[in-house]
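A reminder from the course coordinator: this example appears on the midterm review sheet, so study it carefully.

Given structure:
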């Protein structure tokens, strides 16, 4: 028969198994904020948070109810010309990444609402591409996680 530890009636009840096991409980909710990437064809989950479709075209075969979107941001998707250029030859992935990043930096104002929301809550970027390793949503997440570039200062103006 296993021996049981006698509890001292004067000590408060133990809430945690050990100090190493309960440290995560004091750390707030870091896993609930930030950016996730997911195919729109996957079923929605409670951990998705704010679901944003980041494709310029509506995904084929997906109803609005099944997509369960909170937002559809076409302005942060690759341009039609860039998307067609890349899909003509998928070996252009490195060049596609750099061109898409340049497009995103040119439209930095469109990124700010997503970046601000991701600082407050989980944002899941949804995409329809079949390739889960090389798609524009992964590049978009990288750019959103970077610090925004400062606007270039005009000649002859001073900052206060």
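Designed residues:
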């Amino acid at each position: 028969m296993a021996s049981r530890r006698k509890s001292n009636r004067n000590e408060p009840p133990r809430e945690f198994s050990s100090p190493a096991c309960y440290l995560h409980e004091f750390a707030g909710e870091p896993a609930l904020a930030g950016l996730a990437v997911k195919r729109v064809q996957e079923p929605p989950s409670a951990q998705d948070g704010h679901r944003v479709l980041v494709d310029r075209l509506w995904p084929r075969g997906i109803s609005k109810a099944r997509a369960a979107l909170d937002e559809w941001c076409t302005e942060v998707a690759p341009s039609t010309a860039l998307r067609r250029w890349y899909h003509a030859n998928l070996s252009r992935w490195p060049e596609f990444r750099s061109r898409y990043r340049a497009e995103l930096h040119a439209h930095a104002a469109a990124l700010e609402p997503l970046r601000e929301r991701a600082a407050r809550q989980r944002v899941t970027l949804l995409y329809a591409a079949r390739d889960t390793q090389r798609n524009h949503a992964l590049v978009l997440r990288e750019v959103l996680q970077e610090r925004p570039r400062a606007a270039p200062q005009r000649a002859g103006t001073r900052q206060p």
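The radius of gyration is 23 Å. The longest strand covers residues 34-39.
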